[in-house]
Design brief:
Keywords: ATP-binding, Helicase, Hydrolase, Nucleotide-binding. By secondary structure, this protein is α/β, with parallel strands linked by helices. It is built from 30 helices and 39 strands. The longest helix has 22 residues, at 98-119.
């Protein structure tokens, strides 16, 4: 056989052949063409690593097909499943067995199915069994799928079973036609030179017996088991025609059922099921049809009932339960029921049911209780309380309502004080006392002097205020009080506050008083560097001074990221030295909440709060303050769940970026500061997040802004520019060198072909998009970040070094930011070679303070290399007057935070900011797209947006053009 000459005409073809051990395979071959364009007898099997010489005749799709077929070739199979070198003949005759075949063949078929899906009109042939010639007979692939119908004919003696196949409306004869099932997993049938596939999932084993047989007969004495298993399963999955028994189809609207399961000594659970007519199913079955079989022995008749399930609808009901806060073991809803997460008392499932009874009813859920067990009251419970003020006492008239039953609240005294959850109603049902009541009303009963009623001494007015907050003053009534508000009062600074508040800081301090006056929480969302810390310290010092003489101490709690711990401690000592501060961190931290009473402020971290949740939740704080509150943006995070269980009189959140990735980030922070303002999380998603982010609904964005406006205060650098020294910003465009540009263009073309030739941008190819853009950005910076063997330099790297040389050498200091640690490493290696002193900080730096002090205090250390994420918060670097941003980040707010390390309060010199952008690269497009996509987000409280999610196909074309 002659070698195929790539300089002469040839054609890539695909050949279907039967391997003696692996079954049917497809192989790619190149075949030399005769002078008249027909296929010659000269051919060559090609692989990914041998096809380069024929690249001119191989398309991108063909390359992908060849790669897939490499993985099913026998030598590849042997290497993958047999680690030691061995000849194929020895492997298949001595080692390969039926068990191995059953394991390997499905994996082969998965790849063959992908190949068949891409072959389309490419030349496909049947391989010669005699000499292996790859193009013996041309094969066609059916343009449309075929359909299969399974027949059953039950008589007095037996039941006969056989399939029929239709293609384009005509019945196909395939029995005794030398047909072959070439793929079993999702059947493909080779019949008279054509490959047929089917319009529904079909196991090839259901066709194979009938290639050489007209039917299968099942005798009457074994039919019952056969009907219960095989026939029922077949009817669920396929079209079936029957004679001698009935097949009925039931399609009814389903009702979601929540059944309470309870046994003494065990936590209650709810089991989710779906009721279709008289049939009830667990939600674990994903097939759209479920079959139930009934046998009438007297009449000797079988009836199969096909119940059409609304699978997607069922999944939505499950999702709705999870959205409402119901959790299940491993998120499974099966016949074992929903193992709902319960508190220590074991009754939280009832609280969940009672809390969501109206929502469940709106969603169509029916709540049932198992027969023969305790009957629990399911419904809303509420406390109605009025207060009569006397000279020395407050008389409280309080009733609790459980559905139709109105009961004097004093009857619950022993239950509240002894934490007994079950209260028996007059009709014998058991009402579960909400867990929150034990914390809210324990002090009321403890300090009440009467045993047959509720009476409080006037000195306990604080208890009454806390109770009324929960019972008589709803959030809506608080909003109504706000209608009488005219302007924020000017408040004098605290007497012992060491410092001078700037005008806008004084305004923030006044705003804190306004929130406190109306019992609201708030979010202070000033830009980085504007002094959120100093405004908060002034508030805490005022709280200390406003305490009446002899009044018990009030303690506030500050929760923050670990990196900010000592910064806050130093700032508190500087501005409010009389403030007693406790750092609650480390292994030796207190285990007794009583210790908090000796301090005005307890400072701790998000991680410690998660670990010490029980300790903190046992204490009632004056203020709970979250710094960098975006840390609780995920409502399912452990931090948010721990913090929402803490108790305080006031709540305050501090953040420079209240929205990092999505409008949804706002909900948790507002739920912490003002519970109820934005509704529940599911409502907020449907009402605001989806319309604003997916539909670009500006009206909805404006409505959200109006709702949150009184409770969120944000000042930008531009608004207080007169308070700060000037800054100069400049974009420095860098030309890539020749080899860098060539590598960049080839990579861009490869990703462009993959992304723009595929479907519209979405979840399926978002990962490819991210990978492609990441690689292009790295190449635009320095190709060494992608290829460690690359040694031909970078245009941007050279430009940055030139700019460094031009910076005055005497007093100036430079911050160099990059989001890529690999990029910083390139500069580190250069500075090490040149023996240039520098400081360095990334996420792995253990001693941040040492790096900062080196830069601040060492006059010879003029350069500070910082990863943009690690240096985004907690640093005050006013010694720097030059900021180099080496690469643009998707979110301009993150760049702004980097700039804020230098251009912030305390800076007395002009600050120069240089952004380095590689010319004719994706970096230019990123900056352009940033500007185009700011309009909607600017209507809210930040310039943050989810950049990649918002990319359209047009945007993608621009990025990759």
């Amino acid at each position: 056989m002659q070698q195929v000459d790539s300089a002469l005409p040839f054609r890539l073809i695909y050949s279907l052949g039967e391997h003696p051990y692996l079954g049917y395979l497809i192989e790619p071959h190149v075949v030399q063409l005769n002078g008249n364009g027909s296929l010659s007898l000269t051919y060559k099997r090609v692989f990914s690593n041998t096809a380069d010489e024929f690249a001119a005749g191989i398309s991108e799709v063909d390359w992908e097909i060849i790669r897939l077929l490499d993985e099913v070739e026998q030598t590849h199979i042997i290497k993958r499943y047999h680690k030691k070198p061995i000849r194929p003949a020895d492997y298949f005759t001595k080692i390969f067995d039926q068990k191995t075949y059953q394991f390997v063949r499905p994996k082969i078929e998965q790849r063959l199915l992908k190949v068949l899906d891409q072959l389309q009109d490419r030349p496909l042939y049947l391989m010669s069994k005699k000499d292996g010639y790859p193009a013996e007979t041309r094969l066609d692939i059916a343009e449309q799928p075929a359909s299969v119908l399974f027949h059953f004919r039950r008589s007095e003696d037996e039941t006969r079973y056989f399939p029929t196949i239709k293609y384009q409306g005509h019945r196909m004869e395939f029995m005794y036609k030398n047909a072959n099932v070439i793929i079993q997993e999702q059947a493909w049938l080779l019949l008279e030179g054509t490959l047929y596939h089917f319009d529904q999932p079909l196991d090839g084993k259901k066709l194979s017996p009938f290639l050489q047989k007209r039917y299968i007969a099942v005798p009457r004495n074994t039919e019952k088991k056969y009907f219960e298993t095989f026939v029922s399963n077949l009817i669920e999955r396929h079209n079936v025609y029957a004679e001698g028994f009935d097949i009925k189809t039931l399609k009814e609207d389903a009702v979601p059922i929540l059944t309470v399961r309870y046994a003494d000594g065990q936590a209650p659970q709810v089991e989710l099921s779906f009721r279709y007519g008289n049939y009830t199913f667990p939600p674990s079955i994903e097939r759209p049809v479920t079959v139930r079989l009934q046998y009438d022995e007297a009449r000797d008749t079988y009836t199969f009932t096909r119940i059409k399930r609304s699978v997607k609808w069922e999944q939505k009901q499950e999702a709705a339960l999870i959205e409402l806060g119901l959790q299940s073991k491993d998120r499974l809803f099966g016949s074992f029921g929903v193992a709902a997460t319960v508190g220590e008392h074991g009754f939280s499932i009832f609280e969940w049911l009672n809390k969501h009874v109206d929502q469940l009813e709106e969603l169509g859920f029916v709540v049932e209780q198992q027969t023969g067990a305790k009957r629990f009251f399911l419904g809303l419970a509420s406390v109605d309380m009025t207060v009569e003020e006397n000279n020395d006492w407050f008389d409280l008239k309080a009733f609790v309502s459980f559905g139709p039953y109105k009961i004097p609240f004093v009857q619950l005294r022993d239950h509240i004080l002894n934490r007994i959850h079950e209260f028996v109603l007059p009709n014998g049902e058991i009402a579960v006392i909400p867990e929150a009541w034990f914390a809210q009303y324990e002090h009321l009963f403890h300090f009440s002097s009467a045993t047959d009623g509720l009476k409080l001494n006037r000195m306990h007015v604080g208890i009454l205020q806390d109770i009324s907050e929960h019972t008589m003053v709803s959030f809506q009534r608080k909003l109504e009080k706000l209608n009488s508000f005219e302007e924020i009062e000017q408040m004098p600074p605290p007497t012992h506050f060491k410092g001078q508040l700037r005008a806008y800081q004084q305004a923030g301090y006044n705003w804190f008083h306004f929130l406190q006056q109306y019992r609201f929480g708030g979010i202070l969302a000033d830009d980085m560097g504007l002094g959120k810390t100093v405004q908060t310290i002034a508030l805490l010092q005022r709280q200390k001074e406003n305490r009446a003489e002899g009044e018990h101490a009030i303690t506030s709690l500050l929760i923050l990221p670990t990196s900010l711990l000592y910064n806050w401690q130093k700032e508190a000592a500087r501005f409010a030295p009389k403030l007693r501060v406790l750092l609650h961190t480390g292994y030796a931290r207190t285990k007794d909440a009583f210790a908090f009473t000796h301090y005005d402020l307890v400072i701790t971290t998000y991680g410690v709060v998660r670990s010490d949740e029980d300790l903190f939740s046992a204490f009632f704080f004056d203020y709970i303050i979250l710094d960098e509150s975006q840390h609780i943006k995920n409502p399912r995070s452990k931090s948010f769940k721990a913090i929402k269980n803490l108790r305080s009189k006031h709540q305050l959140a501090l953040t420079g970026t209240p929205i990092e990735n999505s409008v949804a980030d706002l909900w948790t922070q507002m739920h912490f500061s003002n519970p109820g303002l934005l509704g529940n999380y599911h409502y907020f998603q449907q009402e605001f997040v989806i319309p604003i982010e997916k539909k670009k609904d500006e009206e909805r964005a404006q409505r959200l802004q109006a709702m949150i406006k009184p409770f969120i205060l944000r000042r930008t650098k531009n608004q207080v520019a007169t308070e700060l020294p000037s800054k100069t910003e400049q974009i420095v465009y860098c030309a890539m060198n020749e080899k860098q540009a060539k590598l960049y263009d080839s990579t861009k073309s490869a990703y462009r072909n993959v992304l723009l030739d595929g479907p519209a941008v979405g979840e399926n190819n978002q990962m490819t998009l991210l990978q492609g853009l990441m690689k292009l950005r790295q190449l635009a910076n320095h190709p060494h970040m992608v290829d460690h063997e690359y040694a031909d330099g970078s245009g941007k790297f050279d430009t940055v070094l030139e700019m460094l040389e031009s910076v005055p050498t005497k007093d100036s200091k430079i911050l160099i930011f990059s989001q890529f640690v690999k990029h910083l490493d390139i500069f580190r290696n250069h500075f090490d070679r040149k023996k240039t002193k520098y400081a360095y900080l990334d996420g792995g730096t253990k001693d941040r303070e040492a790096a900062v002090n080196r830069f601040k205090n060492d006059s010879e250390t003029r350069i500070f290399l910082i990863s943009i994420k690690a240096g985004g918060v907690g640093l005050n670097l006013t010694e720097a007057d030059y900021v180099f941003i080496l690469d643009p980040w998707w979110n301009p707010a993150v760049e702004q935070q980097a700039i804020d390390r230098s251009h912030r309060i305390g800076q007395e010199r002009n600050v120069f900011i240089y952004r380095f952008i590689s010319k004719d690269s994706v970096e230019e497009k990123i900056v352009s797209l940033q500007n185009r996509k700011k309009k909607l987000s600017s209507a809210l409280i930040t310039t943050e947006e989810s950049f990649v999610k918002s990319l359209s196909r047009e945007d993608l074309s621009v990025l990759l053009e």
